[in-house]
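the two lines:
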Amino acid sequence: MNLEKRKFRFWSWAWFVLGAIYFIVPLYATLRHSLRMERDVIGFKAYVRAFEDADFWETFLLSNALAVATIIASVILIVPTAYWIRLRLPQARRITEFITLLPFVIPAIILVFGLIRTYSSPIGIPFTGIEFFQPLTTTKLGTYALITAGYMVLAMPYMYRSVDTGMRTVDIRTLTEAAQSLGAGWFTIVTQVILPNVRSALLSGALLTFAIVVGEVTLASFLGVDAFGPYLFLIGQHRAYEPAALSFVTFLLTWVAMGLIQLSTGGQGQAAGAH
Amino acid sequence: MAQSSLSLPRVKEPSSLKNWLGVTPFFLFAILFIALPSIYLVQGSFLNGEGQFTLQNYVDLFTTPLIVEAYKLSIQISAATAIGGGIFGFLLAYSITVGGLPRRLRSALITFSGVASNFAGVPLAFAFIATLGRRGFLTLMLKDNFNIDLYQSGFDLYTFWGLTAIYMFFQFPLMVLVMVPALDGLKREWREAAENLGATYSQYWTRIAFPILLPSILGSMILLFGNAFGAYATAYALTGGRLGIVTIQIGAQIRGDVLHNPGLGYAMAMGMVIIMAVSLAIYSWLQKVSERWLQ
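prediction for all of em together
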């Protein structure tokens, strides 16, 4: 029995080492490549070059701004909804959960296909000639709004689940009644009472959203937004070392985001996908 | 008569309609940015060039060689990475849960799996070009030290096997993340009971633990299948659109009507949504089956 268990433990180590190799070798190769821009010298020249590029900062900052916009808009949309469903509308739970799962069925490429076709013509009531909006894709602001909405859809499963899990652990009914007896209105309850109580759950959803949005390339390239993802793709076509440097930086950023999620939830990691 | 009986439930609970108002923004968002775009694609897939109803687009899905090839390649890559990544991810999850490895390795691997399953798209493609490309680190190392020439022996990063190797990087970590909770759900009492009845450790695994885990393993593999099937950015960054998987072909169709039939393009997108929906349905059904034992 003991000998048999030891055999199993040996295999455990073997699988673990194999997995570690699969993780580490591509990252090591990327790092190694990024440090060899100058012949026979190991140095950070590729990083310096990459960071010197004004386009890098422009696209990177835009992606960060889009990530922040996505997170804020998602919080405004999802926190009151999840709260209301838990408090007053449990019968809407199934349909809402179904909706939050839809982004798993509709991959980014299909989503952007539908969004482009729907919002590249004027929005109005069919057959009446009444138009509410010009096509969203013709203006910069409209495109940013559209891509933020798209990112909100992509992030929805993770955001909704984190918020809903966060609310399960606090007694929102008692909190609401206590706040109401002190004379608080709905807005005050959601912003001052509920929001602070789910902030660690929100943080993990927000970080995951950040990790999805900053490197995202499918929506950005089809909607023609000059974000970091398309930029990285573009310099990959023309340069040899800078893309490796930026890939490694992206990896470190993802790691920081995931590490913070681990710290804030103390539990299981989460997986999203901008594959 | 009919009208009054229909409106009866609402009269019973006057506050319920008002309650639904609270979730209006969320449903409005879902209608505008999920339902409307989907309806557009569904509707387009049933229209011919003159805007009349037709089923021809769905018939053409199965007869247009470009589309059939794309689906075949996508299904092959997704199945290969789901099965390979599933088996390897399960073994890894086993080793850090019940396999007896130190606890610190467990949290390290889970964090790393979180990172790797999210590290995808363009940076991942670049990382593998630096590793397994023609001048990649591993390619050169194997050639110089072990006299193994990958590219002479038929490997090419920019083909089926290359993309499979890359997808594995985010597939098996995802498997680790979904399998760890299931493995944690194996109860100690089951093993003790088996041992008391004289079962060996491997008998316990083959007769008890594995059958209990099987629905969960299969379900997770289907999840991986969908995960790979919907992937676009990685393949596009790697080959710039030369490897004709379904997502790449849909991308080409969005950029310019390469199929010369918009309706067929929408039908192709719908085919993909149907495959994703079926995988998700099977996944959630298998999850329910496995919840009978594993909480």
